[in-house]
Amino acid sequence: MHLFTLTAVEAAQALQRREISSVQLVRDIYDRIDNVEPQVRGFISLLSREEALAAAENVDRMLKQGVSLSPLAGIPMALKDNICTNGIPTTCASLILKGYRPPYDAHVTTALREAGAILIGKSNMDEFAMGSSTENSAYHLTCNPWDLQRVPGGSSGGSAALVAAGEVFFALGSDTGGSIRQPASFCGVVGLKPTYGLVSRYGLIAFASSLDQIGPLTRDVQDCAYVLEIIAGHDPRDSTSVSREKERYTAYLGKEIKGQRVALPVECFGEGLEKEIKELVMGALAKCTEVGVSVYEASAPSTAYALPAYYLVAPAEASSNLARYDGIQYGLSIRSGSNLLDLYYATRSKGFGAEVKRRIMLGTYALSSGYYDAYYLKALKMRTLIRQEFESIFKDHDFIVTPTSPTVAFKIGEQKDDPLTMYLNDIYTITANLCGFPAISIPCGFVEGMPVGLQVIGRPFDEGRMLQFCYVLESLLGLKGRLAEMKLKEE
Amino acid sequence: MPAAYEVIIGLEVHVELHTTSKMFCACPNRFGAEPNTNTCPVCLGLPGSLPVFNKNALELALRAALALNCRVNRYSRFARKNYFYPDLPKAYQISQYEFPLAAHGQLAVYKNRELLRNVKIERLHLEEDAGKLLHDEGQAYSYVDYNRCGVPLVEIVTGPDLRSPEEARIFLETLRRTLLYTRISDCKMEEGSLRCDANISLRPWGSETLGQKVEIKNMNSFKAVQRGLEYEVKRQAEILDRGGRINQETRRWHEDKGMTDEMRSKEGEQDYRYFPEPDLPPVIVEDSLLTRIGTELPELPLPRYRRLLAEYGLTPYQAEIITGDRDLADFYEETVRIYYEPQKAANWLLGDVLKLFKQFPGAIKQSPFTPLHLAQLLKLVDGEQISGRTAKEVLEESFNSGKMPELIVREKSLGQISESHELEKVVDTVLRENGAAVRDYREGHKKAVTFLMGSVMKATGGKANPQLVIALLEEKLAKIGE
Amino acid sequence: MKISRKEVEHVAALARLAFSPEEVELFTRQFNDILDYINKLNEIDLEDVEPTSHVQPLHTVLREDEAVPGDSALLEAVLREAPETENGFFKVPPVID
């Protein structure tokens, strides 16, 4: 049996029982990478086998010595390339940060390192996390392991594809408007965007600071709970990180969900949603009713305005966050001109791709003198309305369920030149970011052989019960931990 | 100064807060380190780094707000001010915009102890400092040092209330004294911990509308503020006299050339695209915090000046000098607490003691000479245990060594000889050895007693109690004459 | 609200981005499409709605005023990433005010 087919928890348990070693896991993963990575291309940078093996040997030694390690010690994983790794290139898939080695680790990098997880590489993404297909990477495309002609989604497309292809046991992504959940949905894996403030953003290269959250992409719900347990928690270096008791998310798994109340916002099941996807989501919910869950229709009319609000708030913050890439301290620096302005223009114009420039422009415009009230301020007010609507639904419902994406993974190149259509990919996912709510996507079936995701949105810091709900749903649907079936060069 | 126009000046003052660490990271807030050595991912604005607000910066800013009689806003928040410049590594400055920490304050400004004006403080807000850009003229490169980046600042904006360059300078000096008093900043203009830009406009006397204002930057000393503005008054008046129009622009003062020149015009004005800083939650100042800061606020120079006049009967001159420096005033009041002779204490403090303090390299508080030392010294003088002259010697010694005056007097046997039988012996010897002077005296040259007195003092090493010596001499000389 | 080529050029200058005339043309068109969509927000009366700048109930998050000296290894790594340095300074082309 190939070890890469195990879930992270299965592999970890085998490790703890000393049936296998971390070195074996790493070897098996690298063999798998050698086999499928040329087709998937999910990594932007890959650590050498030797480096990863050295880390694995270290974990094996400690296990042998009886040192008590975290449940994910010795498990190979990947980090999205916007998560800082000390001395290891972190480029955000942008030319402007080509070869950039941060001098420090992100909070989540440290947390996983301390937990003994083995970093294998950095995953591909849309440049600065702006996009829904990973086609905006300045380096290369990533293909959907379920169909190499299709995109893996984005912006955490590399992370999702690597998990689905069995190249890592889990990965971290970041989610600003759906960037974990949409690729999870497209690649048939589990992706969680935690409550804003649950996971420290320290060391996450910002796209839109008030919306960004780091979260896990995993083979199943159980893995998701284990990873979340490691990365969640207060970090004094992030002022928006919330100080609260550490929760044991894994303790929620396996509990009944009888009596829980689910709301379906009618606005998320109307125009633009593929019929087959709607049927799959409804079918999944029908199964829930069999175990005592009640499903209600609800209405959140403001969600129709979530996308326009999002496309003001996110670009505005991005225009400011990305202003620091100016060729002075690090990264690309084009110094052929004669003065500072030349340096700024040349570096930024060459270093950023079209979509990033488009959003910087949009955001700069929305904040500029005379337009702030007309655009940015309105978007912030819309944010209030949407949140109020969702909060009122949460008064008498536990969860809100929607499709994760209106479509399955589309063909590479299909939406490339049409920004607005591309933006519509996020239509169901952005509300959770605008409100700071947690949301998770789990596989709920297939349309034409492509995976479909179902999204569960919860109350702030209700990740435990969301995982509990999804764990039951996952087993009802029988879709736990399926890897993409890939035609391989050789096996 | 041309009298045809009324001068209207408003100031924007930046003050670095005297914290241990920077505003949003733990790097030391220290002037003069090697380039870029006081930096970390946060103040370098490295991708992924995040700010965390320094509690002490908040408290010092609140103290400043209270010292300037501002209304503190219960809710305030940070905003990003976006602009590109190499000394600003994030390409935005974390500042405050729509919701500043405090507003609506005022500061009374006096000249020669007469109230000139109550100057309005329009707002007081927190922001981070930028780094430093070094460029020598004609060089092909500029050099950036980020050590100052992220040092906490308050920006204090006055109303257009000042009516002359001199008033502007005096306001700034008053502000500096207030901020030093409250230990908010070390206010060193030469190190840039106090910086001042000015908006200045002219209008015909009696006009209700304001003239076109011009912003003046780069005035790096109190003197420069006054000179720069005086130049600008003249420049603008000449333009107006010719019937010309003042351009809306920012001008830079050149201290060496004694003139201002254009830095940027209105067209070059920036669009800062302020928006709420998402990385920092809003700041809510609870009443309890504000009350505590208020309680901890020291008595400010002006009320203290008034109290010193009333309580100790000091002259305005004495009170002004003493309250001009909080350490000196504290020293004075502590001395008087132990030694209640306010006038004598003031005379000594403002005389010999102040001279020594001025030579002392550190702050008054760090000097080994304390109010206890001074009080003891004055008591020795009062008790006639030492003479005034000896006291000065003891003071200097005590200042240098930190030894208590009594100990010095004892160790060096400087004590005044007040025992009359001991002195009598000396007087007898002197009279015996100076027959000529005695004769002179008896012949009516009464001044000869001064010579004899000098001889006694010399014989006792200056320790003899002069009153006693005179009395003894007169007594003995009278006897000889009988 | 429509955005003109001239405004696009102004915004580009604010963002320190340079575009060819063709790119400006394309951007102006895409911009207007996106703005049309965004202008949907005008359908709603938001007059009396409070803006949400921060989604969390957090406020006044503070750290103690304690200093940690600069880390020389970190500074070394930082300077290594820099395009040009000299004597511990970052070197930049001349600033023209």
As a percent range, the share of strand residues of chain C is: 5-15%
- Give start-end ranges of low-pLDDT stretches of chain B: none
- SS content category of chain B: alpha+beta
Largest interface: A-C, 69 and 50 residues
CATH architecture of the domain at 5-43 in chain C: Orthogonal Bundle
Name given to the CATH homologous superfamily of the domain at 5-43 in chain C: Glu-tRNAGln amidotransferase C subunit, N-terminal domain
Helicity level of chain C, as a percent range?
25-40%
Structure description:
The complex is a heterotrimer of chains A (491), B (482) and C (97). By secondary structure, chain A is α/β, with parallel strands linked by helices. Chain A has 2 domains: 3-255 and 439-447 and 464-477, Amidase signature (AS) enzymes (Alpha-Beta Complex), CATH 3.90.1300; 304-378, no CATH class. Chain A is built from 15 helices and 11 strands. Chain A has helices spanning 8-16, 22-40, 49-64, 107-114, 157-164, 181-187, 221-231, 275-290, 306-321, 340-351, 354-367, 373-396, 419-423, 430-435, 463-477; strands at residues 43-46, 76-80, 118-123, 170-175, 190-193, 213-218, 261-265, 294-298, 399-403, 439-447, 450-457. Chain A has an 11-stranded mixed beta sheet with strand order 1-3-2-4-6-5-10-11-9-7-8, with helices on both faces. In chain A, strand 10 (439-447) and strand 11 form a beta hairpin. The longest helix of chain A is centred in the last third of the chain and has 24 residues, at 373-396. The model of chain A has no long low-confidence stretch (mean pLDDT 95). Chain B is of the alpha+beta class. Chain B has helices at 55-67, 165-181, 222-241, 287-296, 301-312, 316-323, 326-338, 342-359, 371-382, 388-401, 405-411, 420-433, 435-442, 448-459, 466-481, and strands spanning 5-16, 53-54, 71-72, 75-76, 79-82, 92-95, 102-111, 114-128, 132-134, 142-145, 152-158, 194-204, 214-219, 249-254, 259-265, 275-276, 283-284. Chain B is elongated and about 100 Å long. Chain C has a domain at 5-43: Histone, subunit A. In chain C, strands 2-3 form a two-stranded antiparallel sheet. In chain C, strand 2 and strand 3 form a beta hairpin. The relative contact order of chain C is 0.07. The chains are: A alpha/beta (491), B alpha+beta (482), C mainly alpha (97). Chains in contact: A-B, A-C, B-C. At the A-C interface, helix 9, helix 10, helix 11, helix 12 and helix 13 of A face helix 1, helix 2 and helix 3 of C. Strand 2 (53-54) of chain B pairs parallel with strand 1 (62-63) of chain C.
